[in-house]
């Protein structure tokens, strides 16, 4: 093993050289168009300090101001003799002791950290992916079994569904769901987007399940039936567990593709990660920086999925 590692080091060096060359090529390309990198504008789209104005609720005056570090405790006395205390950022004070205030006057602001548009877009992408993937898995399992059914109606309908979905673009399906079915049934855009993604994923998962079940030797089913199991029990306890081991890699690939396909629901005004990135670009003018961050966030989602699928695959292979 040590000898093998030693013999591989030149290839690792070559990999590093290629990556450095690609990075230099990217830098050189942007220098040709005089692009100015502004990475300092990016962090505010992940998290920022939101300001909330604190206003007087009645007519009165400023009785006292007590500084407490970077904050100030302002005591307001109203005309009826009552007092109100407001804690605001010290550098945002708009009043001094003894000043008269009217109802609605701004005294100062309070600051707190809030998630930026890219984090909110990431969250939207995550929950849409999880819901679409869960429903797609259920639909795909049912469709795959229907494709293998001896019932002609189930087999024909499932085949028609798979061919229709796989033969038309996902973008067109989203438009049909939102503008036609969504309008008729009064569905929200989020429901329409999740439904379109789930049905699209279900068609591909159905074909993966069908191929996985058909790859199991017929003798497995015959052996299960000879032990007294009926057809559903044989499928559940014998065939599907073996098929799952074989279809795990393509299933993982399909769900990784689903995460990326969620970017298409931005066309029906769902503010997921890609749409959040576009909105951030319009205010920051940092095109390359934002798109690199968006790509990195998709990697943050998909790389763990790949690693989990690989570990699960190795574990299942050891259990054979």
UniProtKB/TrEMBL annotation:
- Family matches, as InterPro entries: AA_ABC_transptr_permease_3TM, ArtM/GltK/GlnP/TcyL/YhdX-like, MetI-like, MetI-like_sf
Q: Which molecular function terms from Gene Ontology are attached? A: transmembrane transporter activity
Q: Could you confirm whether the keyword Aminoacyl-tRNA synthetase appears in this record?
A: no
Q: Where in the cell is it found?
A: Cell inner membrane; Cell membrane
The record's similarity note reads: Belongs to the binding-protein-dependent transport system permease family. HisMQ subfamily.
Query: What is this protein for, i.e. what is its function?
Result: Part of the binding-protein-dependent transport system for glutamine; probably responsible for the translocation of the substrate across the membrane.
Recorded protein name is Putative glutamine transport system permease protein GlnP
Query: What organism is the protein native to?
Result: Zestomonas carbonaria
């Amino acid at each position: 093993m040590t000898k093998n590692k030693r013999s591989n080091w030149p290839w690792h060096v070559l990999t590093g050289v290629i990556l450095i060359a690609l990075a230099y090529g990217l830098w050189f390309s942007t220098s040709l168009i005089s692009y100015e990198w502004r990475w300092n504008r990016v962090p505010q789209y992940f998290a920022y300090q939101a300001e909330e104005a604190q206003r007087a609720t009645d007519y009165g005056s400023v009785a006292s101001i007590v500084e407490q570090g970077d904050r100030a405790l302002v005591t307001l006395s109203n005309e009826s003799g009552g007092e109100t205390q407001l804690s605001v950022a010290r550098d945002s004070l708009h009043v001094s002791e003894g000043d008269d205030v009217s109802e609605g006057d701004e005294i100062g602001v309070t600051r707190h950290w809030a998630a930026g548009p890219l984090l909110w877009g990431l969250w939207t992408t995550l929950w849409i992916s999880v819901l679409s993937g869960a429903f797609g898995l259920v639909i795909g399992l049912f469709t795959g079994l229907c494709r293998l059914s001896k019932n002609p109606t189930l087999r024909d309908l499932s085949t028609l569904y798979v061919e229709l979905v796989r033969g038309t673009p996902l973008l067109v399906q989203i438009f049909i769901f939102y503008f036609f079915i969504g309008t008729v049934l009064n569905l929200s855009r989020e429901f329409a987007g999740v439904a379109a993604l789930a049905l699209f994923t279900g068609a591909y998962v159905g074909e993966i399940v069908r191929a996985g079940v058909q790859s199991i030797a017929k003798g497995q089913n015959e052996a299960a039936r000879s032990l007294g199991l009926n057809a559903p029990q044989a499928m559940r306890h014998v065939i599907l567990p073996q098929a799952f081991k074989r279809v795990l890699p393509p299933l993982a690939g399909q769900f990784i593709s689903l995460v990326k396909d969620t970017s298409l629901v931005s066309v029906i005004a769902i503010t997921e990660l890609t749409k959040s990135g576009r909105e951030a670009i319009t205010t920051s003018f940092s095109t390359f920086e934002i798109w690199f961050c968006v790509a990195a966030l998709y990697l943050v989602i998909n790389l763990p999925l790949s690693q989990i699928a690989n570990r699960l695959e190795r574990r299942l292979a050891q259990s054979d």
